[in-house]
Amino acid sequence: MEQELPSKLLHTAVDELSRLPGIGRKTALRLALHLMKQPADDVERFSRAFTAMRNEIKRCRECGVLSDADRCSICANPRRNRAVVCVVESIREVLSIENTQQFNGLYHVLGGIISPMDGVSPNDLLIDALIERVSRGEITEVILALSTTMEGETTCYYLYKKLSPYPLLITTIARGVGFGDELEYTDELTLGRSIKNRQPLVMNG
Questions:
Q1: In a 10 Å sphere around its CB, with 0-12 CB exposed, 13-18 middle and 19+ buried, how is residue 7 labelled?
Q2: CATH numeric code, 81-200
Q3: Cα–Cα distance, 84 to 105 (Å, whole number)
Q4: Is-contact 88 172, C-beta < 8 A?
Q5: DSSP readout, 103-148?
Q6: Burial, 114: exposed, middle or buried (Cβ in 10 Å; 0-12, 13-18, 19+)?
Q7: Do 183 and 177 meet the contact criterion of CB atoms below 8 Å apart?
Q8: What per-residue confidence (pLDDT) applies to 147?
Q9: Where in the chain do CATH 3.40.1360.10 domains reside?
Q10: What angle do the packed helices 150-163 and 127-135 form, to 10 degrees?
């Protein structure tokens, strides 16, 4: 049974906070009461930060990483290896791989993986943008660093078929990441080794 609160405004704030992933109503109430104790200027700054993030953040026009500018800091870095592109599901995997300090190429964020059960088809992902990047001829290797779930494997197979006509090396992360694992939750040491020891991808059919 939902807890009755003495204030409708507090009730609304708790409702909104509890919509966040992993935040139950008790935690939401604790957070709301904490914010109530803070100076008004601090709460206003907190609110402005999230409003600005939602309204002003962009996707890099090259790789799809979230960025403050049209081109993200990774793509704009002249020291990155532009011939190698690592394909990932989301910004979370980019952050995980960057934390390993084992990769110096560029990224391509698909924005998800193929999942018919969830209504996600290839047309819903940034696959055409990846093919367009590859068609320019500057990329010599594409690393498919997707979660080793059934959906991730399906996406790898689809991308392999789309990329095979191009003269490039298609690799995948080494199987230090077990089948069924989400890349985001793999420890940095294992993920770093999997990137460094990546293997050519061979698929039949």
A1: exposed
A2: 3.40.1360.10
A3: 5
A4: no
A5: --EEEEE-SS--BGGGTB-GGGTTHHHHHHHHHTS---EEEE---S
A6: buried
A7: yes
A8: 83
A9: 81-200
A10: 30
Q: Domain 8-55 falls in which CATH fold? A: Helicase, Ruva Protein; domain 3 (1.10.8)
For residue 191, give both structure tokens.
């993920």
For residue 144, with 0-12 CB atoms within 10 Å meaning exposed, 13-18 middle and 19 or more buried, which class applies? Answer: buried
- DSSP calls for 23-45: --HHHHHHHHHHHHHS-HHHHHH
Report d(CA 155, CA 145) in Å as an integer: 11
How many Cβ atoms from other residues are within 10 Å of residue 202's Cβ?
8
Structure tokens at 10: 């507090």
User: Could you tell me which residues are beta bridge partners of residue 141?
Assistant: 84, 169
pLDDT, tens only, 55-86: 999 999 999 999 999 999 999 999 999 999 99
Give the residue range(s) of CATH 1.10.8.420 domains in the chain. 8-55
Number of neighbours of residue 135 by Cβ within 10 angstroms: 11
Residue 67 falls in which region: left (phi positive, over 0), alpha (psi -120 to 50) or beta: beta
Helix (H/G/I), strand (E/B), else coil: 87:
strand
pLDDT tens, position by position, 1-31: 456 778 999 999 999 999 999 999 999 999 9
CA angle 156, 142, 113 (to 5 degrees): 30
Q: Are strands 141-144 and 169-172 parallel, antiparallel or unpaired?
A: parallel
